[in-house]
Amino acid sequence: MVLVKQRTLSFGERYYFKTIVVGLIYTFKNLFRKKVTRSYPEERLDPSPSFGGVPVLVANEDGHPRCVACGLCEFVCPPRAIEITGTETERAIERVPKTFTIDYLRCIECSYCEEVCPEEAIVMSQQYELVGSSRGSLKLGLDELLTPASELSTRLEYIRKTYHRFQVAPATEANASCVPGVGGTGSGVAGTAVSSAKRRYEDNY
Amino acid sequence: MNEVVLSRLKELASDADATAIDPAADGLPAFRLEREQLLGFMADLRDDPVLCFTMLLDVTALDWMGREPRFEVVYHLYSVKHRQRLRVKTSCTELDARVPSLTGLFPAANFHERETFDMFGVVFDGHPDLRRIMMPDEYEHHPLRKDFPMEGIEPEKVYLMKGGVMMPRPEGAERYPGAGSQVP
Amino acid sequence: MTTQATLSEAADRDLHTELMTLNMGPQHPSTHGVLQIQLTLDGETVVDAEPVLGYLHRGKEKHAEHMPYLQWLPMMDRLDYLAPLQSEIAYSLAVEKLCGIEVPAKAQAIRVVLAECMRLTSHLVWFACSALEIGAVTPFFLAFREREDLFDLLDELTGLRTNQEFIRFGGVKGEIPADLARRLKAWADRFGPCVDEYELLLSGNRIWYDRARGIAVLTTEQAIQLGLTGPNLRASGHPMDLRKDEPYSGYEQYDFDVAVGTVGDVYDRYLVRLEEMRQAARIISQALEGMPEGEHMARDYRYVLPPKDRVYSSMEELIYQFKVVTDMRPPKGEVYQAIEATKGELGIYLVSEGGTSPYRAHIRAPSFVNMMAIKPLCVGRPIADVVAVIGSIDFVMGECDR
User: Fold this and answer.
1) Does residue C334 sit at the B interface (CB-CB below 8 Å)?
2) Strands (DSSP E) along chain A, which ranges?
3) Extents of the domains making up chain B
4) How far is B173 from chain C (nearest CA, A)?
5) What gap in Å lies between CA A3 and CA C282, rounded to an integer?
6) CB-based contacts of C155, cutoff 8 Å, min separation 6
């Protein structure tokens, strides 16, 4: 415990001599310190890979979105900025989004959507300057949101470093019981993995 | 948890006909009692030389809609001597939503009780100045009740700045000035 | 001079006096945020000071009943918007207590670092603004310069300068890279002497001394009766600090002191907060130096998101991912979790009925309770002291109104 001590003023402090001198010396010293002011917009911010701007959709090499319209990002978005409708497709993928709208005016750039996406299909861009001439212009649809994956490579690398918490092999017997109280018969084979997951699922709930 | 404190609490609780609630996830001792015994029990807790629950941390309420009694008022107390927390619960029905006020014992209950009245409609008898604190003074509803929608209900009357007198909304006036004028 | 004396004197002189109502309205540079104080003045003496709250009421507790637990977490950031992460830590601790999740040691250490960084940002704003309101303009720039450095470091770590949303149930979102940890520790070591500079400018300054010494004294009994906690209570002489009394998140491992005042006036509260800034820098240094090894998130996949690389490849983790996001149900129960926030004790009272949203989430905001001290401290004092009192109590309307 530290008792903060009140003090009584010395002679110099009581008659302002020390105060004036100290103040002036301090101001003079600060004339030559580096300034933290940035002359924005001439000097722009150069964000690091970890900077999260507004979210964009990732497009594969063939131009199609990686998104499978699972709806996790729509569900988890705190301000409910994302709206998705899905549709079927002939490609070898379950679903694709028919419409995908993000309302940038609602987005709080929390990066929850990026964190829950199981396909690396939505990532945060480096854009933080949102300018529009009407409310509707900042509600972007699928075409405006698609960005090629090559442009987003630094961000994709960053999220792999952050969210891939342990680079391990698929669940084995040793580390299968990640949930306390549940014994698992996890294995690497897809078929038995599904059935064991179902059993664990039912065990818990 | 201090054994001395626990045993003394049990003694006081039996005097006030308070039943102990099973320990919650946070392990706090908790008691439920009738609102008639509330003032006496709280005074004992505060003045008892062994216990010294002198600090009232929080007063809030729960709305168990569909159950009787509907409102449950929850108090959290803290003893600076033993560094121990305590939870006390009392309840009241919807039609007779009155609970005695603790402002005489703990001045800290003042704003908390006003907020509970504002949000739930529970009246605290004996409060020196029971009026709304968060919502506008003339608001007709109690927001944290379960039958109040999350989107909110607009007040019926618009508060016009004419000497502080509340005036009804003139016919044909928009709900929010300028609403609908922006084209998406 | 008390009101009675002035009024009776005036009556003796046969002067007609009346009390004036002055509205220190919601838009005022000195009320920290949107606070309205209705002052009733007799000349320059305050007869009554009635705070009017609710201008920033956003209905967070109502939202909690309709949003899943994880979706409500960003709302905690916006409570005390000067120190966002500490409110998230309070809520995460409450949910972890409810669900029985064990947080790994590394995540606890990172949480301590972030909480103390937030304490520093909040106290720096307090320092800047309360000095500015009394008339000292220079400390504002000095404090905000330090805040810029801190924000740049936090930006690199979390991705955002403010409202970072970095805490998750069961841990933190990411770990602190080694290079960043080194720079953060260097900043914390450099910060202690900065506080000495601030003291040099203000503590011995006669103007500040006269404006702060002996003003608005709050005794320990008064403070406890009003339910005050945090620096306001400690300045009145009572050493209550939840980091020492009921340690959470590994605080018992760190060596720091609790600053306690003697008199309880504005000057004491100022000194206590300055000392807290020094101690916070000390804790950050220790926590970064002794950062334990391990994971930064718990492995309880009922409530915690599984690691992403396994979500891409393995079926169980994919199902857990979907289950945690859409259907996380803590067990039935109630919990009250309190932390030592910058303004006092921030308590979260969660009642769960086994659904995906809390049945009731109540926030015991320290600023709301600190508001109750405005009236007893302002009555009987000149109006100029109202500004000093508001600055020294240090509340934030986001937390007060929720």
Assistant:
1) yes
2) 2-3, 55-59, 82-87, 96-103, 122-124, 139-140, 146-148
3) 3-129
4) 24
5) 17
6) A47, A48, A50, A51, C161
Predicted structure pTM score? 0.87
What ipTM, to 2 d.p.? 0.87
| Cα dihedral C221, C223, C228, C229 sign | negative
Instruction: Give the pairing of strands C259-260 and A2-3.
Output: parallel
Domain assignments of chain A as residue spans, ordered by start: 55-163, 168-205
Q: If residue C51 lies in a helix (H) or strand (E), which one and from where to where?
A: strand C45-52
For chain C, the structural domain boundaries read 3-52, 60-401
Q: Which fold has domain C60-401?
A: Cytochrome-c3 Hydrogenase; chain B (1.10.645)
Percent of chain C past pLDDT 90, that is, above it, reads: 38
Size of interface A-C (CB pairs under 8 A): 167
pLDDT tens digits for C116-134? Answer: 999 999 999 999 999 998 8
The CATH fold of domain A55-163? Alpha-Beta Plaits (3.30.70)
Closest CA to A72 of A36, A135, A8, A122: A122
Cβ-based burial of B96 (10 A; exposed 0-12, middle 13-18, buried ≥19): exposed
Domain spanning B3-129, CATH architecture: 2-Layer Sandwich (3.30)
Tokens of C54: 């609710």
Provide the shortest C-alpha distance from residue C224 to chain A (in Å): 19
Residues C253-303 pLDDT 10s: 999 889 998 888 899 899 999 999 999 999 999 999 988 888 888 888 888
For residues C336 and C361, give the distance between their C-alpha atoms in angstroms, rounded to a whole number: 10
**What pLDDT shows up at residue A189?**
34
* Maximum separation of any 2 CA atoms in chain A, in Å: 88
